[in-house]
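User: Predict structure, ligand pyridoxal-5'-phosphate.
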Amino acid sequence: MTLDARARGDFPILTRVVNGHPIVYLDSAASSQKPRTVIEAMTQYYERSHANVHRSIHTLGEEATELYEIARDRVQRFIGARHRQEIVFTRGTTDGINIVAESVAPTLRAGDEIVITEMEHHSNVIPWQIAARGREVAIRSIPVTGEGTLDLEAFRRLLTPRTRLVAFTHISNVLGTISPVAAIVAEARRVGALTLVDGAQAAPHLPLDMSVLDCDFYAFSGHKMLGPTGIGVLYGRREVLEALEPSRGGGEMIKEVWTDRATWNDLPWRLEPGTPPIAEAVGLTAAIEYLEKLGMERVAEHEGALARQCVDLLAAVPGVTVYGPRGERGAVVSFSVAGLHPHDVAALLDAEGIAVRAGHHCAQPLMRRLGVVGTSRASFSVYSSSEEIALLGHAVGALQSAL
Ligand SMILES: Cc1ncc(COP(=O)(O)O)c(C=O)c1O
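Assistant: Predicted complex:
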């Protein structure tokens, strides 16, 4: 049985009919749909166990705290982190990267350098620009080759003893390129730089093992991996997190407070000020359990096969350009249709019930590199099927006649 045949019935939204057609949802990289177990876990939490965490000495408060901390254990196991203190709950990938950037910023000195790449999502560009602002810190960027991969030779030349941090995506949300994380981390470490990996597109797609990737920080979002919006994870190596001065203050992140000073709580709570996303953590637990039941190896295999099928089908359509590597890639395929604006492509496909994303995908530097204003993008999840890719191929083929 294919993975989508096993999974599809678990996603209530996929019974929707859109513009007279059963929905073909090919926008999972923007946000995935949710299985019933995630929706029900959150409803049950609100109906039976909701209270605030870490502060209430009563039954509901203890239940909520336990559920919240169980989510941390599940995430730790899911990503192969050594310690539960290394898992910080955030609002999403963007939030996680900002937390690191805000904490690193005051330690930057004039002449320091930050290395990013030409294929970053704006979430992994702007926080570094803000951190560098007014500090005479240069931002350098690893170029993307004609094949859509990172130019590692150029990367080596960019590294200097002043490189403080290298921030890069695990999987490009436009090209689907999978970065050689461990190799980049090893190079960065040789010059003493910290590493931050944007895992927004990888966590839903690949088995993860932090002990193998060996990066200092890894950020991802719950809503792209079958979980709810409003929660994400920032993994940080314990030694590195210990040394990170919190940049955000409030309840829960302190031990003792005077009016003019305070001492910090232990990790990870030191980096989680205020009431956290509790119901969302419960939903994330259910999402991880769902993915683990399917098996992440199988998920990667399924989505990888769909991506290859999609590349082959679209590349064979006259007038269609497909971007990114031809071999192994993540669960996204960006393309353009000659003579049609990406927004028009998306609107015409929507009329057929097919949901794709169109635009610059929050990656304007990459659009500039590709020489386009935007692209259309199909992206896949566990419930996506080979039949849906065929429908997309057919619909894109028919677009030429719309010209
Ligand atoms: C590669 C990448 N990084 C970061 C983000 C931002 O994720 P979020 O909006 O969940 O913070 C996205 C979302 O599209 C992404 O694809």
